Amino acid sequence: MRCFTRCLEAAKQNIAPADMNGLEWRFSYCLSDFTETEEPYREVFGQPTAFLKQRALERISIEAARCGFRGFKKMYQA
After folding, report:
1. Residues 60, 28: Cα–Cα separation, whole Å
2. Is the pLDDT score of 24 beyond 70?
3. If we measure between CA atoms, which residue out of 66, 19, 21, 3 comes closest to residue 40?
């Protein structure tokens, strides 16, 4: 898993947004990801444009609510 994580981080850092052709990185999260890690927040923060950032914020907020975590946007703003 550590190897996969390192490879994923390298890909995310080395592939320019223009080379993604409008695609975005998408991950699925569970409740513990929202309460114990920074990963969902990093995904939003790492979006290259304001539009993609807002879209990711909305999508992940919905996913957080489905997991039972209703404070994602508030935590992200903090």
Report:
1. 9
2. no
3. 66
